[in-house]
Amino acid sequence: MYNLLFNNCTSRRKRKALVLCVALILNSISLSLAQQTSPDVMAKETEQKMTDRERFAMITSLIGYVPALGMPRDKRIPEGTTMSAGYTPGVPRLGVPNIQSSDASMGVTNPGYRPDDKGATALPASILVGASFNPELAYQGGVVIGKEARARGFNVMLAGGINLTRDPRNGRNFEYYSEDPLVSALLAAGAVNGIQSQKVISTLKHYTLNCNETNRHWLDAVIDPAAHRESDLLAFQMAIEKSNPGSIMSGYNKVNGEYAGGNDYQLNKLLKDTWGYKGWVMSDWGAVPSWTFALKGLDQESGIQVDVHTWGAEAFTDSLQNAYKAGNFTKERLSNMVQRILRSVYAVGVDKWEGTPTVDMSKHNETALATARQGIVLLKNDAALPLSVNEPVKIAVIGGYAHLGVPTGTGSGAVLPVGGYAASINVGGPGLMGNARSLYLLPSSPLAELKKLMPNATVEFDPGYMIAESKLLAKRSDIVIVFGIRVEGEGSDLADISLPWGQDALISEVASTNPNTIVVLETGNASSMPWRGKVKAILQAWYPGQAGGTAIAEILTGKVNPSGRLPLTFPESLEQTPRPELSGLGTPWGTPTTIVYNEGADAGYRWYAKKNIKPMYAFGYGLSYTSFSYSDLKVQGGKTVTASFTVTNTGNRAGADVPQLYLTNAAGENNMRLLGFERTELAPGESKQVTLTADPRLLAHFDWEKQKWQIKAGIYEIALGKSAVELQLHSSVKLAAQLFGK
Ligand code: BGC
To answer: What pLDDT is attached to residue 535?
Structure first.
């Protein structure tokens, strides 16, 4: 091409100008190439200048001291260092910053590391974010976390919980987004992108199948490997593609017999070789029983003192160094571990921080409120809601500490808000985390907020402490609003899905006394709701965060139109779920446990569809104060499925709908898969056209032999629905056979 250009040039001046031009183009091409590869190049260059001592220090992190627990500062953390979940020394002479991490599922946490910390924004639980079906909202939450992290000097956020909510007893479902790989991937990617937009690294965790807490350190999660690719692994794969998280945190559990942190298939073969993941894999805290995990793909041992507590020794310090000296652990692998960490530091821009960002806490509270407004789900409404705000009615608010605040999940994700908790009650319990199990109440009282919005009503509170007493108030009230709460969190699974402390009996008795009973559930999971037929309305508020009381009151009074949709199926009972009995439940800490995820890729709604079981409330379900209709479904085939349709608000209030596109049958196989969704805001009477294109992996099975995704030739039946069981428009397309991807 250049010769051709030269030949056409006649004058010397023209030729000179052209040479200059070509040089400039070449220069800019090589510059942009350098920019593209620079994190890799920079990581390599820096690593090569490091000493082995520096290298070994980089592949571990130290948990900070907690004065309240009398835990001393590890001498390896220099005095004056901000305490965090994980501290890794930087290399100042090479411009490498200290790495400081914090938990961040729902905001920047502080389990006592920093007594002077004024508190962070306590966002709603991830499961509520999932219920918004709004990745943009997840992004905004991520920005809040990223800014508040930077203000504290933290550059790694232990966020992005993306385990599928396979079991409604899982104590940590509130930290995860949904039971569906696509919803989980899009929402987690939103959060990771939001955090990383602030030049703060985010993890995705817990890789993979940490879907129950029962005996998590001794748990073998067993699954068919191809089904694994189509479910939990697909969620990780898609989220990684969409957000390039700087780090992946491996889970505590084993996956098909090998610990997740020492799982050669999951880490080396799949994540790094097949998917080409360039960041680093950190362990969970206290999850590394052996230095050999370094050979299996683990790049960093987190909170090394916790491994001493759990396994009797640190793994990546003396033991790994001895293996290095003995030639059992190579220099090449050590360099690779370090380079992966450095690469993420450079790729996310942790090294490019300039100044401390200004943090506008009231703006962050707005994000917390906006999220709660969009993720609370109205499950039942027999014309009881919205409440008529101007009526001089007598309202009884009962239970759930609604006079104080809203509960939040317990464990490493719990966020201490500005001003502290409204109350915290240690519940206690067995197991490693039993002592830490607490009912934390965030100071946003639904009672106070309701009073504000209903100035003409007489609103009285009863704590639900004694059923007979609660009935007395219910009897002389026009409307009863009962709050049902449950403490869920890390380290244990629920024994069943009832409400604790006799709350089911309370609701039932109160509803018998006053049929105008509305229930607000503040839980991280489904509940059995034996009183469901007796009450007029049910609102699933999850753990709604520091502005949750406001959002609940706004939805009850109609100031906000509910728009959340269930991101996980609510079963009639545990009998409907893949595992009515949960193996290992109730056994002492340390009991080897195997949970067989026999539903395979058919987690959640996919299981109910395959077994033809009708749950209590289906995945994707949620009511509104307006109504929506769908029309003009047009579906195109080809390499994948593209559908377009019209959504119309047919009611008289503005509202948001979440139309959902499902595959219901794949070439003759009953195979339900969510292919796409779009949260759509509509004014009364307004219509919008929506087009959704499916990720072809959702139409395929993973062929384990060929290690490729396979679409079989045939007819693919597609449905547009309001939930996994309310399918309203149907169509079908023919797809040709395809073998693709990895
Ligand atoms: C949790 C992780 C968390 C870590 C650090 C562990 O107990 O499983 O999710 O990031 O602690 O606090």
So the answer is: 98
